[in-house]
Amino acid sequence: MNITRTALSCLLLAAALPSFAGVIVNFDSEAAANPTSMIDASTLTYDGGAVQILGSGAAFVTASSTAVSGGLGNFYGSVASSSDHTSNKGALALEASSFRAYVATGFNGPFSVDFAGEGNAHLVALDKNMNVIATFGAASENNNGCDTGFACNWSTLSFDFGAGVDVYAVDVVGASGLQWFDNLSFDNINASTTTNGLPEPSTAALGLAALAALYCARQRNSRTSGRV
Q: 133: which DSSP letter?
């Protein structure tokens, strides 16, 4: 009975530990808040500052002219139909050869980004010192079948080094003035040590996990000692 009770306690402690998902930046809320203006993406913060877009003037948050009243961007959803656009309110209009998606604490899971428009695009993964880890791509997209003057076909660029490699930035390289990028997805973002003097959630989770392990170990030791 004691063994069953201890095992159940350990399972409950483990279940109580918080889990953390990745971050997806889709630019919809930013675009909807500024439908008639193209906003320099480097001037905004995303997911509470976890993600930054670097490169002044490189990319602009743009509202779809078909999804948001007054929107300036000539892109919409994933198929060549003007009826499939309502969920895609915002995207980044590329106005240079590339923009940089930066995560100050790094991440060690999959990364992906969707793009539409004309031409090739590829990704460059960078380490903490902004040295190139690897280059991925290239993929090509076009506007075939879209309403005249619009981009509607979307492709996805991605990579995944797994948990053993921390990536701190991704250069998204494409065709200036011809492409839109959306749904930047970062998995397993590393948490910083503290925020305003308080432990980050993942740091607290690790602490709880350590306490749970210590409790279970002591319970096992107690049972072992009782048999001697």
A: E
